Amino acid sequence: GQQVMQIPQYQHVQEGEDFTTYCNSSTTLSNIQWYKQRPGGHPVFLIQLVKSGEVKKQKRLTFQFGEAKKNSSLHITATQTTDVGTYFCAGEEAILFGKGTKLSVKP
Amino acid sequence: DTAVSQTPKYLVTQMGNDKSIKCEQNLGHDTMYWYKQDSKKFLKIMFSYNNKELIINETVPNRFSPKSPDKAHLNLHINSLELGDSAVYFCASSHSAEAEKLFFGSGTQLSVL
């Protein structure tokens, strides 16, 4: 069936280093969303991408949607300790969630 | 004011019991959801209701029964609880069934002993 794969599962970085998480789908997605879940918290919406090749930025965060609408990435420049959490991608109107990438940042 | 509120926050119960989790949203959204997050943090959709009508019912045991008395409320009733039901259950809502942006509640940690 339809799946959304997300890698890596874990990422440990030194504060100030960059971070990227990738999301891949077996089928074309109509849109993709990204959520952040802090430890002990609930998922919080970050962004939705709809168009092929779309790139959106939010301060240090850059989101991309692939040309074929089968993959997406979230890149964080110069991580800070406040970036700690698990980042999820979600496709098909939030029906298919990736398994998340847990980011830890060492100060 | 909390946008999506669910109660209780914690629920500890014995196997075989029946329990309910309540969810309310004050955002005026048409669509509400239940998600299950297991111990590995995998988020899986269980149900979705749009204007009180069930639109998504993933392969969830029929011991789980959602009920939406109005579009601001979506409750989850679980019969004959099993150990494997232990998880965090999140309620969420969105403006429409197109789920352009989900607002999640703070979760209910269910522990079945």
Structural account:
The complex is a heterodimer of chains A (107) and B (113). By secondary structure, chain A is mostly beta strands. In chain A, 0% of the residues lie in helices and 55% in strands. In chain B, 0% of the residues lie in helices and 56% in strands. In chain B, the strands form 2 sheets. In chain B, strands 2, 4, 5, 6, 9, 10 and 11 form a 7-stranded mixed sheet that branches. Chain B is globular and about 35 Å long. Chains A and B meet through strand 4, strand 5 and strand 9 of A and strand 5, strand 9 and strand 10 of B.
List the helices and strands and how they pair.
The complex is a heterodimer of chains A (107) and B (113).
Chain A: E1 4-7, E2 10-14, E3 19-25, E4 32-37, E5 43-49, E6 55-58, E7 61-65, E8 71-76, E9 85-91, E10 96-97, E11 101-106
Parallel strand pairs in A: 2-11
Antiparallel strand pairs in A: 1-3, 3-8, 4-5, 4-9, 6-7, 7-8, 9-10, 9-11
Chain B: E1 4-7, E2 10-13, E3 19-25, E4 31-37, E5 43-50, E6 53-57, E7 64-70, E8 73-78, E9 87-94, E10 103-104, E11 108-112
Parallel strand pairs in B: 2-11
Antiparallel strand pairs in B: 1-3, 3-8, 4-5, 4-9, 5-6, 7-8, 9-10, 9-11
Give the key terms.
A: 107 residues; six-stranded mixed sheet; five-stranded antiparallel sheet; 0% helix; globular; B: 113 residues; mainly beta; seven-stranded mixed sheet; four-stranded antiparallel sheet
Short note summarizing the structure:
The complex is a heterodimer of chains A (107) and B (113). Chain A is mostly beta strands and 107 residues long. In chain A, 0% of the residues lie in helices and 55% in strands.
